[in-house]
Amino acid sequence: MSATRPLDVAIIGAGFAGIGTAIRLRQKGITDFVIFERGTEVGGTWRDNTYPGAACDIPSRLYSYSFAPNPDWSHTYSGSQEILDYIESMVGEFGLRGRIRFGHNVSGLVFDQADGLWDIALEGRETVRARTVVLASGPLSNAGFPRIPGIEDYQGHKIHSARWDHDYDFTGKRVAVVGTGASAVQIVPELVRQAAAVKVFQRTPGWVLPRLNRPTSPRTMQIYRQLPITQSIARQGWFWGHESVALGVVWNTPLTRVVESVAKLHLRTQVRDPWLRRQLTPGFRAGCKRLLMTSDYYPALQRDNCTLVTWPIARLSEHGIRTAEGIEHRFDCIVFATGFDVSKTGSPIPVTGRDGRVLADEWNKGAYAYKSVAVAGYPNMFLTFGPNSGPGHNSALVYMEAQIDYLTDAIGMILHQNLRTLEVRRDKQDRYNERLQQRLTATTWNSGCRSWYLTEDGFNATMFPGFGTQYVRQLAAVDTDDYLLTPADTESVIGTGDHAVAPFG
Amino acid sequence: MSFDFDDMLAKIKARQWALADIDWDAPGADLIEPELHAKLKPFMADLMWIENVGARGFAAMAQKAPTETLSEIYRYFHAEEQRHANAELALMRRWGMLDGDEIPEPNINVKLVIDFLDKYADGMSLSFLGTVIPMLEVALDGALIKFITDEITDPVAQEAFKKINADESRHLATDYAVMELLGHSTARKLFIDLVGGWIKPSLLIGVLSYVPLLNKMRDNVVEMGVDEERLYAAMRRFKAVGERNPIANRVPMYRIVKMHAGWVINRDHPYHLLADALVKITARVPDRFLGPQPTWSKELTYEPVA
User: Fold this and answer.
1) Which of residues 77-136 of B touch A (CB under 8 A)?
2) InterPro entries under this entry (chain B) (predicted)?
3) Helix, coil or strand: residue A90
4) Which residues of A touch B86 (CB under 8 A)?
5) Domain that includes residue B230, residue range
6) Alpha-carbon gap: B276 to the closest alpha carbon of chain A (Å)
7) DSSP classification of residue A353
């Protein structure tokens, strides 16, 4: 890489989003890009989440890119290794490995107004300059330990679900699992097979739907391979099936009761003890927190070597967990299946935009963006899985693909029209977010429960209040009316809106 | 509303204690006279079981709480009542009242209340639970626990009951604040709550379990050689809440519970003919009429470490 000539595109993160962006850039004829990856392998969240039982709860057919179809998914829902293999296969197929700079940890982004370039600070390395930046670091990239008093006092083995210790042998061990979210319900059935005793510490139970995971027959795979249209039809089928679920999951409707009834029936058929059933029955509407998809969790909880603990955790002690009923539960190992530090109130990387503004400061009450991909004051920078881009009912990859298509179009515009900057207008961004937050008030996520979707103050910075179709449609084309455009080598502004102002003014 | 529920929750979280904080083998277990020792065993068993019943009551209230903070407070109270029961069981163990790993059987009146709560508590409104549970707590806190702290010189028991009392004082403060919160409801809501609650047949079963339980408790107190006035003084304190706080007095269910408390402490009231008869009748209820003991009532343990 030349020290003098800036890159056209710098992509931060070699997870699903970063790799997808690189593929689409290449397909659109943009080839001067580099992916900066802090790890030594590709895969992001799927590289990090290798705990036993790790799998996706969206069908693989849909949890993959339409522009990189895979006929070989072995099951309806794939395990983490298969997903990781898919990401790696895309890297190989599209010849991206040479474009990935492993071990490059981006420590900061600063916009240079004079040159209209981003300075990308790299830990222990020389700063790199780029015309455009794609922040594909993802919201689920940093493992989060819960804020429990005495967490440092515990002297036994500690494992976070997103940083699994594969060298630790659970055989004959007493194990605690803290958390009962999406990771925990996958880990627990695996652990009860190995450990001597497992205690699962639950704060609030989630709605659990059965997961019907069927193997894909070789014949089906062959059909998909020979007639790609069939795979595309299958994908559409899954997409519309999930879209219909939005009617009960995104908004509180009579269909929400139907979803709850299915989950209650599932609970009733799998759990006999009425008190255990009561402990596992959520006190909030389905969809308010992430729906859990598993048919193995409830049976695992009822195994002789497994106990569900619902007493509030008072603190961690040297040997285990003290709960409010006054008992110290002792363990050889505590597994924290407590999710991630989701970037709801700050950016994962320090970002300094135009006029010295700092993104984390602007987002300290809750992150926001324009259509989740661009932020006013930060020209030529795009986000994948940015604020309010989360689906509660459909595949994140469908949403991500729409973002990638949108931002690669915008990048194409900057490069092909030789723009110095492309920056979303503040007024457009504000109006978008005003409407978005208004629409969010009617959703299940804002219906009163506490979840990782919301900030401490109850601000929803993560979810998109609508159908996937609506999300995809809003990103179908880059509307230049919504942006301030500055051509290279001039201070003038190309802008058709009423509020067009010189971005460097 | 001057009561700060968030502040209370923070206080509750900050003041958690565990059975492991107490040295159950410390000297002083032999300070109990043999005569008292014999009477103390059924008394402690009842006390421990009533704490467990209170725990289940709070579990139901957690589901009814109007805010997430109050719900969380009740989740803690549920666990704390269980902690008290566990600590009382640990004391029984310390005093050599348990045979091996034995957990004493609840008496028939407690069994009836357990059965009732298991079946119906989750369906009761906050105004019902929020007035009856404080009444039971006042009676417990004011009479039974006070009796123990006055009569038992064992320093370990003193230490345990000091902690239990501190928890109970937070429970009562919250209970009263919730009664005041309920009192702020509109007259229409209070009326609907009252009528809606009383037309349920389950409430009759509840009353038929609750009435003999109170009189049975009184019998046990008397059996111990304690002046029943102690129990009555505690119940008078429950009556006094409404006099101090006219808003709480607006809650019709509070008034009913208060009126009932008035009958209980008046030994000449004809109510006792019924209540005493119910104690006798319930004593003869065969076990087979009761369902199996729910699993929540089997979580008691005297072991500080699991």
Assistant:
1) 79-80, 82-83, 86-87, 118, 122
2) Ferritin-like_SF (IPR009078)
3) helix
4) 325-327
5) 5-294
6) 33
7) -
Specify the pTM: 0.89
User: Per the domain annotation, does B88 fall within a domain?
Assistant: yes
Does any CB of chain A come closer than 8 Å to the CB of residue B166?
no
Is the residue at B269 inside a domain? Answer: yes
Q: Assign residue A41 a region: left if phi > 0, alpha if psi is -120 to 50, beta otherwise?
A: beta
d(CA A468, CA A240): 9
The label of the residue with tokens 């005793």 reads A197
Question: Is the CB of residue B171 less than 8 Å away from at least one CB of chain A?
Answer: no
State pLDDT tens for residues A51-76: 999 999 899 999 999 999 999 999 99
Does residue B142 sit within a domain? yes
What angle, 0 to 180 degrees and rounded to 10, lies between the N-to-C axes of helices B126-139 and B155-183? 150
CB contact under 8 A, B19 and A327: yes
- Can you read off the two tokens belonging to residue A113? 């107004």
Regarding an ipTM greater than 0.95, the answer is no
End-to-end CA distance of chain A: 32
The answer to whether residues A371 and A383 touch, using CB atoms and an 8 Å cutoff, is no
B277 found inside a domain: yes
Alpha helix (H) ranges present in chain B? 5-14, 34-64, 68-94, 108-120, 126-139, 146-151, 155-183, 187-198, 201-223, 229-244, 252-265, 271-283
- What is the SS3 assignment for A425? coil
Phi, psi of A242 (to 5 degrees): -70, -35
Residue B113's CATH number? 1.10.620.20
- Tokens representing residue B42 in the block: 């059924």
Structural domain tally of chain B?
1
What is the C-alpha separation between A376 and A425, in angstroms, rounded? Answer: 6
Question: From the list B16, B83, B296, which residue is nearest A275 (CB)?
Answer: B296
Q: Buried b / exposed e across B262-299, counting CB within 10 Å, b at 16+?
A: ebbbeeeeebbeebbebbeebeeeeeeeeeeebebbeb
Q: pLDDT digits over A105-160, tens only?
A: 999 999 999 999 999 999 999 999 999 999 998 776 667 778 889 999 999 999 99
